[in-house]
Amino acid sequence: MDRVCSRCGCSGFHYNRSRMRMECDSCGAPAYDPQQDQQLMQYDRTYSQAVSHLAAGNWDQTIRLLNPLMSQYPTEKRLYLAVLRAATQDFSDVDMENSAHRAAASEAWDKLVRLNGVSDEMIRYGRRRYEKHRDALNGRRTRILVWIFAAALCSITAGGLFAAEHYLLAVLCTGGVAACLYKVFSSHPVMVARQLMSAAPNYQHNPFI
Ligand SMILES: [Zn+2]
User: Fold this and answer.
1) CA of 126 to the centre of ligand 1 (A)
2) 8 A C-beta contact, residue 55 and residue 82
3) Which helix (H) or strand (E) holds 16?
4) Is residue 203 a part of any domain in this protein?
């Protein structure tokens, strides 16, 4: 081996398994590893490129650049935070219609919870998303109640028409009852009620599921 220890000048090295590095035989100083430097430089450059794309609003490019880094450095919180930022368009996209972005955001969120990296910004975003979801649910509940009311009205009218022997109109109203009830059941009333009764999410709750 032609390299020498920078601290003591010894030219013998061995592999230290617990530290996962080459060390000087006599003083234990770590051997200079140009390959590791190269790797770190590559990481820094790719990350800074991803951050530039993020600043420019190139969400897909940001995620694409960060994906290989995440598999190389799986405990780096800032990578997941940057992916989450890109997937949510810097926490501005509350609807998350894009399913690929939603999947990426969901995964990044889970990793940040696991790595203890949940930020205030994430919590605020999760709450905004929850409130928007709740508003939509309230809207659905109102529509369901309107259809139930219409069904009741139709059935009373149908009863009155049958009694008055206006059979054709009565049958039409009965059809109206069926149509209104179909509308009620196709709006999944049980699911809406259950979701409305569920408690507000805590900070660990993944808002993308
Ligand atoms: Zn040495």
Assistant:
1) 53
2) no
3) strand 13-16
4) no
Helix (H) or strand (E) holding 198: none
Same domain, 76 and 41: yes
Structural domain boundaries enclosing 139: 133-197
Nearest-angstrom CA–CA distance, 111 and 130: 20
**What's the gap in Å between 30 CA and the centre of ligand 1?**
8
Inter-CA distances, 100 with 62, 202, 208, Å: 13, 24, 11
pLDDT 10s digits, 80-131: 999 999 999 999 999 899 999 999 999 999 999 999 999 999 999 998 988 8
- Residue 32 alpha carbon to ligand 1 centre in Å: 11
Q: 18 CA to middle of ligand 1, Å?
A: 18
Distance, CA of 180 to chain centre = 36
Distances in Å between the Cα of 27 and the Cα atoms of 16, 22, 193 are: 13, 12, 69
Q: How far apart are CA 68 and CA 154, in angstroms?
A: 61
